[in-house]
Amino acid sequence: MPQNTPPLPPLPTISEAESQVMLQLWREHPQSAEQLALSLMPEQGWQLSTIKTLLNRLLQKGAIAADKDGRRFLYRPLVAEADWLKSQSLSLIDRWFGGGLAPLVAQFASHRKLSAEDLTALKELIKEQDRG
Predict the structure, then answer these.
(1) CB burial class (10 A; 0-12, 13-18, 19+) of residue 126?
(2) Contact, 12 vs 59, CB < 8 A?
(3) What span, in angstroms and rounded, lies between the C-alpha atoms of 88 and 5?
(4) Which residue spans traverse the membrane (predicted)?
(5) pTM of the model
(6) 2 pLDDT more than 50
(7) pLDDT attached to residue 97
(8) Based on the number of CB atoms within 10 Å of its own CB, is 61 exposed (0-12), middle (13-18) or buried (19 or more)?
(9) How many Cβ atoms sit within 10 Å of the Cβ of residue 31?
(10) Which residues neighbour 62 within 8 Å (Cβ) at sequence distance 6 or greater?
(11) What is the pLDDT of residues 88-103, one digit of tens each?
């Protein structure tokens, strides 16, 4: 009889601003607050104090860890990008489309013509679901 694996603990809720910090850490880690500021200041217009506030929030939520490196801290993600993306996309589908994928695809298709590649990929997904 197969063993049931325990469900994964829920991921911390990450705000839009916090997600910008996480994206930088997923691209390259570990990074100091100053290193993050160099990439986020031009993009977001944030000051170092804002970035430090966001880092502290992410630390409190358990989304990142901080390791002491001399007089500074180096930050690294504890939440995997793939897990966060999955959680975000499922949340979007649940909130906006009642959990249904067909309404999601219909919404996108009503605003943008599906390419031949999109249609082929969707057909392949349907075949895989029918087999599984």
Answers:
(1) exposed
(2) no
(3) 22
(4) none
(5) 0.71
(6) no
(7) 80
(8) middle
(9) 20
(10) 12, 78
(11) 777 777 778 887 778 8
